[in-house]
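Contributing new records

If you add data, match the layout below exactly. Sequence lines come first and carry their own label; structure lines follow with theirs. Keep one chain per record. Anything else will be rejected by the validation script.
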Amino acid sequence: MRGRISALVWALSAVLLTVSLVLYPRAAVESAKEGLSLFLNVVFPSLLPFFILSDILLALGVVHFIGVLFEPLMRPLFNVPGEGAFVLSMGLAAGYPMDAVITSRFRKTGMCTRVEGERMLAFSNTADPLFIFGAVAVGMFSMPALGKTMAMAHYIGALLVGLLFRFYGLRDPERTPERRHQGNILRRAVAALVRAREEDGRSFGQILGDAVSESIKTLWSICGFIVLFATVVKIVEVAGIFPVLAAPLERLFALVGLDPSLVRAAVIGLFEIDLGTLAASQAPASLVQQVAVAGAIVAWSGFSVHGQVASVLTDTDIRMGPYVLARLAHAVFAFVATLWFMRSTSTAGWDGVLPAVGDFALGLAQPDFWTVLLRGLGWAAGLPLALVLLGGTAAVLTGGLRWVGFYARR
């Protein structure tokens, strides 16, 4: 019965969309052009170089090196096998939907259980840094300095989702066995890099050529989703459905003190991440509220990205329900964290945003500390360096505990 209802809903939605395209052809064509223009002028030039470099790093074994180095963090923090570090590193490096592709491969080969795959997907599904710094901060807001604020809020929100979801599915009887690794973690990381490079076996010229072709193929797939959902958003507006979707958000925004002009951006962002963040950057609201709503939209990622993830997971038993709940949680965490970090640079628009959240952020935020930290590390290498330091610290602590346990048993 449930399957029949689902089939009828999807069939009816497809029919209504097709009929709407016939009834509103001009709006459909204009929205498709806008989506294509956004892709060609902002998304494509911002993401293509990074997609190519991420493929090269993967082929050269650099990502495998990072994955082994982070292994001691994964089970105690996120309750996933060590291979989850590879998913996390690729999610950070390449963004949507690379993490879903890798999680799907892990599940098909038995490297993780269904619940572990859902946990990995919950916190590793992130936007890549170049999208946040380039497409959003520079391309949409025309303020490069916003990149570090949005990136910190986005990735901290993702880690909080991971910590939350480590308790998800604890009653699941399946669990991949924890393997004991011998030897120094840095040696094993280097060995993994060398082994991955040998298994790949391609020359650098071939790697570069394949990276370019695969990146362009992936980006054109993303273009298709952007154009489709740009059309859906426009049809929702011209067909008079927009007020129905906006009504609940208008009440919520009024409750927390957000500018009502941002409701349109939130509704659009519900469907498509690029169009939603662009609408947030153009709304006549304070910069703090614009950036906070844009951060929530990036964390939610939109039905466009959800559709890409669902298509990747089709051949696995990983469910979309936990993924959607994780995106909702990520949106909330990213919104609050963005307000937190924006407080250090601006006070305009802050007082109207949920006094309880403002008081919490004012009590916890340490602007001077974050300023010194970010300037010291440098944002070009700050995030990878911080992760490497965390992985190394965890490795040292783990080794020390094993050493103490070994001599305690003697």
